[in-house]
Design a protein that fits this description.
alpha/beta; five-stranded parallel sheet
Length: 222
Amino acid sequence: FLNKKIYYYIFIKIIFFIMLILSIPIFVNIINYPLGLGADKYKEGDKITAVIVLTGGAYKDLNNNWYPSINTINRSVLGNNMAKKLDVPLIIIGGNNNLSAPSESLLVSKIITNDNLILESKSKNTYQSATSLKNILFENNLDIKDNYLIITSKIHNLRTALTFKSQNYRVKIFDYKNNFNLGFSNILPNSKSYSNFNKAIYEYLGIIHYILQGYIKINLFN
């Protein structure tokens, strides 16, 4: 097929066009937009029983010391601020895929201050976070029928919300500012768009995987 010059040039042009489109932030923002949904967004005045933070990774430095990732720190600081503002418990959920490392929730507890902090240190993915939360609520006399504010990254909102709703939680997601606009910077090619596109594909595949595993119930879309 590619031995014929005309087909070769057409193929190259198609690839170039696709790469160009994916480098423009506005197109990637369109792809990412549904991933920021999944549940009602928190609004000022909503009654919230607790704030739940899902951690987002950890790393080890050259001295073999473990630290929470920047994603984990950002989510936890935001969750801590919201919990204090609402005067409700802060629940931080997150283990660690590295068995020799401390849990991500424990790492976070060392950098924030909150007298009403609850840690979960065993879950290693979103589904395990949702299932382990039931024990936490029971142990702390919290009702699963109440409203809970979930803090995760915007791109992870959809999978998180659908997974928790499949476990019969009533959840609201944090209303991150919408970056979807037609500003000049959003129509200029940017290498970061490839990374954002890759993360979006990962999330969509993760949602498909969760549906096939039964972690997300299809009837939630009805």
